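Table 4 source record.
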Amino acid sequence: MGRATYAASHIFVTRDDSGKKRLNTSYFLGVLSSVAIHSADRPYWARSPSAPFNDFGSTIGNDAGINLLHEFGPGIRQMVKGHTPRFVFKIEQRITHDQNLKEVVSSPAR
């Protein structure tokens, strides 16, 4: 659980020049300004009071999810690749074999 917590909370906490942990205010100001611009771009009759809060929360949730994907993505890919069906594995081998042949044929002779 430590890796997941660190990856998800990394958007909230950052380190300053001295190495101390600080609130990531630049991130929050960027998200808030993005949400403000997005809600100001809507026509007045389509604005709702809860929309900016929803946008703010979903942006933070998406960014935390992307951090989790970056943290655990390589392990998930490796686990999934080991469970590839045989016919998909054969197709992948054929494609990489054909690409290697094209590279050898297209490379200039020395």
